[in-house]
Structures
1.
Amino acid sequence: QLQLVESGGGLVRSGESLRVSCTASGFGFNSYHISWFRQAPGKEREAVSCIGSTDENVHYTDSVKGRFTTSRDNAKNTVYLQMNSLRPEDTATYSCAAGAVQCSESVVSTPGWASWYDFWGQGTQVTVSS
């Protein structure tokens, strides 16, 4: 079993930066691929980024490419999502998810992958004001 806890959300202004973290407890974190998802009120959940178990693959959805960076520190059982140049449309609850789903371009560009993940955090709210 793996427990995931997100932290670092908050309220920022358009153009500012924020880093959210996903810290895991339990066994086997290093073997899981991790994805960040977000869901805004009234909208479908979407994958934002994914990172392979050993950091060998990283992919981003088109709307965040060049602005967001995902990294992981397996020694700390933590995955990070650095968000720069934030926009009001980035406002959402951000959640991390762990699973055996291989990180790929398909994960971040094709709906429906969320059901393949085994473990989820509770989410952290990110609000970007204009």
2.
Amino acid sequence: QVQVVESGGGSVQTGGSLTLSCKNDGRIYGTKSMGWYRQAPGKQRELVAEISTKGTTNYADSVRGRFTIVMNARNKVYLEMNNLKSEDTGVYYCHIESDRTYWGQGTQVTVSS
């Protein structure tokens, strides 16, 4: 079974920073894009940021200017999150788009004052 490997996450105070990373286990071919979604308690899953293999990025308005997504040559993606706010709290899911969409298990990000 293909695995999407996530790391990072945790708890931080308001204004702090965290970095999430994500990669596939080598069994996903033809990657088109990678990115992160998040789901807060009681809310729907929403796009946070995504990047194509051509380098095109897309950010949610709520994180633009605070979060940065990059992809390295080995199709590992990093989400650098700065100036975190309480509303950034949620479970963050990595997704990989190739011939289909693959999802990670999710990693918790908690921002508290």
3.
Amino acid sequence: EVHLVESGGGLVQPGGSLRLSCAASETTFDDYEIGWFRQAPGKEREGVSCLAVNEGDTYYGDSVKGRFTISIDSTKNTVYLEMNSLKPEDTAVYYCAAGPYYPPDVVNSAWRSDAMYEYWGQGTQVTVSS
């Protein structure tokens, strides 16, 4: 069982930055695929980013590419999502998720799918507003 805990959400003005954290207990992130998703009111959950821990490959949704960065601190067993140049449309509850290892070609095509992940955090609210 993997327990994920997100933190770092909050209220920020447009153009501002936040860093979300996803910490795992009772395991390390080795051999996992780690994803960040978000869900805004009335919208479907959207894949934001993914880190294939073994290969170090990163993936981003088109709406966040160039503004968000996913990274890992293995010594702290924590994955981060650095969010810059935030926009009101980034407002959502952000979730981290962990799934088993898949080959790179699978991750490349499936990282946006909920089905690739087994474990989910409780979510953290991000609100971008002036």
4.
Amino acid sequence: QVQLVESGGGLVQAGGSLRLSCAASERTFSSYAMGWFRQAPGKEREFVAVRNWNGGTTHYADSVKGRFSISGGVAKNTVYLQMNNLKPEDTAVYYCAARSTYVSRSYIPPSPREYDYWGQGTQVTVSS
């Protein structure tokens, strides 16, 4: 069973930066879309950013546009999230997600239910 392994979370002051990494445990794994969701205590898991490998497109939640940047490896099994100008409201557990089934070039799956592989989560805490 393929696993997604995340790293890079931690504690940072407001205005600081962190870079999250996510890699599939098997090098032969390939996805059609890969990205990040987050979940704060008492809240539902929410979309942060996703890259559609099929169309080469990316999409960001409005709350992180201009501050977060998603990128990935050529093999479509690794994804990164560069987070700049972090705010206390960014505090959450961040989850890497991958979808191994077909996605059309222009479609960005917005719901957690549309992804079939998940990482264990990495905590990001932003202090004010």
